[in-house]
């Protein structure tokens, strides 16, 4: 039986403070690979972002890991803050 290909969902929220970008908030959502999700979480830890990981379930009862990475002021130019939220199916982390 072929191994199932899992995908993660990345939600981003960034508040721009002006400069090269218009002031305001930008939000986005996209599907990414599990490998990219792990790389993003590891990068957040490297950049000293506030990283939290929680176990929960989705609306259908499927187990999920939700990782939250919050980058504060000064991490990037023209951004007051940026937050990344990763939804990763638990099975993607436990299937061998």
Offer a quick outline of the entry.
By secondary structure, this protein is α+β, with helices and mostly antiparallel strands. It has one domain (7-94). Helices cover 19% and strands 50% of the residues.
Task: Describe this entry's structure for a reader.
The protein contains 2 helices and 5 strands; from the N terminus they run E-E-H-E-E-E-H. It is of the alpha+beta class and 96 residues long. It has one domain (7-94). It has a 5-stranded antiparallel beta sheet. The two termini are 13 Å apart. 10% of the residues are buried.
General form? elongated
**How many domain modules?**
1
What's the order of the H and E elements? EEHEEEH
Largest beta-sheet characterization: 5 strands, antiparallel
Low-pLDDT stretches are none
Q: How many helices in DSSP terms?
A: 2
Helicity level, as a percent range? Answer: 10-25%
Strand content is over 45%
- Helix/sheet category: alpha+beta
Mean pLDDT, to the nearest integer, reads: 89
Cα radius of gyration in angstroms: 15 Å
Please state how the strands of the largest beta sheet are arranged side by side: 2-1-5-4-3
Distance between the termini: 13 Å
Q: How many DSSP E strands?
A: 5
